[in-house]
Model the fold of this input.
Amino acid sequence: EVQVMESGGGLVKPGGSLRLSCAASGFTFYTYTMNWVRQAPGKGLEWVSSISSTSNYIYYADSVKGRFTISRDNAKNSLFLHMNSLRAEDTAVYYCASSRYYDSSDNFDYWGQGTLVTVSS
Amino acid sequence: SSDLTQDPAVSVALGQTVRITCQGDSLRNFYTSWYQQKPGQAPLLVIYGQNNRPSGIPDRFSGSASGNTASLTITGAQAEDEADYYCNSRDTSGIHLVVFGTGTKVTVL
Done:
């Protein structure tokens, strides 16, 4: 059974930092690209960052570039997101999701239930 | 802002057919995937690539594409299909970047 579970969310003040973690099991984690996708309250999905299976390729949305850092540990089937200089607009549920590029599309197939990050003074 | 535009909301009578569209320039070069999201739940992949359904997704869901528009069709909509639906593709400003559509709320009457 596939399981993806995020942790580390919480309330943080503007300008603060937070580290999200994602633990995965039930699939060959080390073969998948992994992603963070967020959803602000009442809003749509926003892709945040991706990291290739061997960490060779890392990409960020413009909205978080220079502030967030994605990393992974394939030995522990884990994904991380270090978030610095947090802003109110970073408030969202953060999802960890695996993806594969197949048939000319990015397919986000396994998702966690998300962890809520609230940036507020 | 998203490079992929969807109608904000559509409604469909129970058992009827509804088509949801996703428009964007990147769709001329890439297929999209479609995701269903119910309140309080994580998104669920329902269609990927040209027209592929993951295991467990009912065959009433199908996908198609033409030019800069991709479509998700639900043939014989059921009450449990009421949800938000999102498409995704690559960002026109950076080919390695991913973008999600604005989302469509489907209401089953």
Notes: The first strand of chain A starts at residue 3 and ends at 7. The CA atoms of residues 7 and 45 of chain A lie 19 Å apart. Chain A has a mean pLDDT of 97. Chain A touches chain B at residues 35, 37, 44-47, 50, 57, 59, 61-62, 95, 97, 99, 102-109, 111-114 (CB under 8 Å).
